[in-house]
Write a structure and sequence with these properties.
24% of the residues lie in helices and 23% in strands. With 243 residues, it is α/β, with parallel strands linked by helices. It has one domain: Spore Coat Polysaccharide Biosynthesis Protein SpsA, Chain A, CATH 3.90.550. A seven-stranded mixed β-sheet has the order 5-4-1-6-11-8-12, with helices on both faces. A two-stranded antiparallel sheet has the order 2-3. The protein has a two-stranded antiparallel ribbon with strand order 7-13. Helix 3 packs across helix 5.
Length: 243
Amino acid sequence: MTQLFSDTAMVLAAGLGTRMKPLTLTKPKPLQTVGERAMLDLALDKLVAAGMKRAVVNTFYLAKQIEDHLKSRRDIDIIISREDELLDTGGGIAKALPYFEGLPFFALNADLPWFDDGTPSLSRMRNAWNPESMDALLLVMQTKKARGFPPMGDFMMEKDGRLRRKGLPPPRPFVWISAQIQKPENFAHPPAKVFSNNAIFDEAEAHSRLYGIEHTGTCAHVGTPEDLRDANELLASGKGWAL
């Protein structure tokens, strides 16, 4: 049976991009280009390919630049969620909650590009989503294969896809690479106005309802100007991001 799923997604684009200075002093991190395309557009492109009709994009730092940039998109409706104070990842989603109309939804970071190999990862996530057993589903990648990430990792993944990290010291074999499916009820009673998605992940893990699916393509953690330079040089050389 086809599961009900929101055709509105979230793209998180409000962050300060502190580690990307001095580049982010004049241009926000989501508008920095990878392969001659803004990282924000790379995220939106994936949502369009997955059949999403609308994307809520939260803005705060250099918000007008991002909002002006998004006016050129014609393939997906854009809803701006302007924040008067930086709400962090969880708070940003909680503020946008009414747009998802009570249905599970995709949320993507605007500053962690990846490329698919074969079936798009968002399609694989949608097909794997099971609201009966899952509260959240994360796109993860083997730490040793994920370019630009430190070796500590984020999660261990069981054979059935359940993710765990509590009580498991690093290094952990999987890193989260930005995409997630969330139930709206996860954010119905937020722990604070400003909070991280990690609070949602921890709650789901505590009830054995945090799951992952492995990304089989490539990705690049673009956290610093040097990371951005390396990511673009690898693409331009034709070598790509595979490790």
